[in-house]
Amino acid sequence: MAEIVVCGDWEREFQKSDELKRLAAAGSVQVSEALDPSRDELKTWLHQTRAVLEIRGRAAFTRELLAELPELRLIASTGPHRIDVQAATDLGIVVTTTPAVSTVAVADYVCGLILCLARRIVIAHNALRQRRWEPQTGFDLEGKTVGILGLGRIGSAVAKRLVGFGVKLIAWGPTLTAERAARSGAQLVSEETLFKTSDILSVHLRYSPLSDKFINASRLALMKPTALLIDISRDGIVNRFDLAEALKAGRLAGAAMDLCHPLPVDMTDPILTAPKTLLTPHMAWQTVDTFERAARMAVDNILAYFRGEPVNVVNPESLNNSRQRRPKP
């Protein structure tokens, strides 16, 4: 069996890179191109494997699966979103991640979604492909108020890009200060003001129990009927049922979402039939450059772990588990 397994190399980006050679220097490597492997497939591939590199974050590492992999010591992930990190910690499996590798790609993507909605580009494109000549009337970005909900790493990168469009930037977040907002070219406002005055609202809150379904019917009701909502947040910040109802009722002019929870999205989700939407399948982060950065850092994480110098560990408690002190089989 391979000592290291690479999962999710669907478009063979990892195999095309130099990272495979670097990884092979640390041990025998097996690469899988399956995008959504089943539990049985993962169990077969990872039997007696010491480390796994999950290149797309699509493989589901449940407690039940991890409990059946007694030799697994490390999961090097590009995003531990489908990993039961608590189970990994309990079982002594180290989980590493690749922070900030997709910031540039995601921030660019947000700007693309804003432009597509504001200028109704996709509507015009689809009509023309169906042999209908339907020029669309959109609106300029210059002079509009763009609200950033959560001015963290990605929110700040989005703000930086939007400055060039001549918009007025406002921001709110539960811990945001006026000084931090100003560094991104934004003005700190109250939560209510953010929702009431934004012509475009871009969602970048970090998920927590407090932010779960934060954008609900009551907050959507504060927004202008001419406003646009942009959401690329990973988890359930936006209540999609409430958003779909607001769009159907004409209480919002449009919404763009990079759907990523759950993966894949439930095909009965009401947002899929809501009008005035631009929806994509969790691809904001997907660029060749992001893959290169993620692969490089993930391999760095594996090599550092094998050297006994683990980095970018999301569950450091696992390092004290007896599994980590067990001799190499």
How would you describe this protein?
The chain is an alpha/beta fold. The model has no long low-confidence stretch (mean pLDDT 93). The termini are close together. The strands form two sheets. It has a seven-stranded parallel beta sheet with strand order 8-7-6-9-10-11-12, with helices on both faces. A five-stranded parallel beta sheet has the order 2-1-3-4-5, with helices on both faces. It is 35% helix and 14% strand. It has two domains: 4-101 and 287-325, NAD(P)-binding Rossmann-like Domain (Rossmann fold, 3-Layer(aba) Sandwich); 103-280, NAD(P)-binding Rossmann-like Domain (Rossmann fold, 3-Layer(aba) Sandwich). The longest helix is centred in the C-terminal third of the chain and has 19 residues, at 288-306. Helix 6 (103-118) packs across helix 8.
Blueprint of the fold:
Blueprint: E1 4-7, H1 13-16, H2 19-24, E2 29-31, H3 39-46, E3 51-54, H4 63-67, E4 74-77, H5 85-91, E5 94-96, H6 103-118, H7 121-129, E6 145-149, H8 153-162, E7 168-172, H9 178-183, E8 187-188, H10 191-197, E9 200-203, H11 217-220, E10 228-231, H12 240-248, E11 254-258, E12 277-280, H13 288-306, H14 322-325
Parallel strand pairs: 1-2, 1-3, 3-4, 4-5, 6-7, 6-9, 7-8, 9-10, 10-11, 11-12
Helix pairs in contact: 6-8
CATH superfamily of the largest domain: NAD(P)-binding Rossmann-like Domain
Helix fraction bin: 25-40%
Overall radius of gyration: 22 Å
Shape: elongated
Biggest beta sheet summary: 7 strands, parallel
At CATH level 2, the architecture of the largest domain is 3-Layer(aba) Sandwich
